[in-house]
Amino acid sequence: MVEPKAGIERLARETRQRIYDYIFSDTGDQTIKVTLDQHNKLRFENGNTIFDLVLTRKIFAEEVLPYLFQYITFALTDDLRTCSPIVKAFFHTFKPDGKFHAKKIAITFFTIRGLLDLARITYPYALGSGQGHHGGTIPNAQINSYVRSKLVSGLQYNLLDITYVLIRDLEYIFQLLNRMPGLKSLKLGVDVVEFLACCAPYDSMERPHNVAGLFELVRQDTSGIWPASHYMLRALRTMSGMGRLRNVELKLDWGDFVLNRYRAAGVVFGPPWTSEVKQEMEERFEDMIFG
């Protein structure tokens, strides 16, 4: 017995295409939040209904999904780890040799900050005013469980060692994104506090004594940083050397997620930190990235 066709399936393909054009052009861009569960499986938190509907019939999967991937921004969101695990899971779910390719991806937390106990560690030394600072070896109890999983058991790591391990995680995602043939737009959620966090010179004689001093170093371009030595700038600029990825539109979404974690941990920024200063610092770092 031949299964009867649904109403839309009885229409000519050209007519269906015009219907899809009308529906999706009217709907506009949509964002679907993607998270990673405890079993490292992707969850489309506000998009399951769409995918369930589309996948009910083969014809919809073949004809509608390309439209969905054109208009949908997939917001990959994980604030417990670096973004590497969720990007890896997304990459393997929508394989480069598959039919459907994501065109727009947002990584909500492009960061390595917040993976350590900020109540005890405020490194580098200029992030707080009038507070104690620690820059030596970090006991494992103060390290996020994900970070511990990236380190060799039994060894002691200082903050620079851990930064190096985590920044390799960030750089790795660009290798995966570079292999996504349909990618047109990439938005990265960043926080200017993270960029400032590794601006203080290592020489104690040159190190600023407060936040205002650090801002002045950045303003005068005398902090000793440049894109090849600043870990966040270096990670971002790896895109420029990648064949496919260097043609992808890159946007930075400046947020407060690192700053809020510092505040929650009792790390208070000094009086110079205002919305105007924050915007100025963001613009200066953005110039370094895109300059």
Relevant terms:
about 290 residues, alpha/beta, 12 helices, about 40% helix, elongated
Question: Topology, please?
Answer:
Elements (H helix, E strand, L loop, with lengths): L12 H15 L2 E7 L5 E3 L3 H7 L3 H6 L1 H7 E5 L7 H10 L10 E4 L37 H6 L8 H19 L7 E6 L1 H5 L14 H9 L11 H7 L11 E6 L2 H8 L10 H16 L1
Parallel strand pairs: 1-3, 3-4, 4-5, 5-6
Antiparallel strand pairs: 1-2
What can you see in these coordinates?
The protein has 291 residues and is α/β, with parallel strands linked by helices. It is elongated, with a radius of gyration of 23 Å. The chain has one domain (77-290). α5 links the parallel β3 (72-76) and β4. A 6-stranded mixed sheet has the order 2-1-3-4-5-6. It is built from 12 helices and 6 strands.
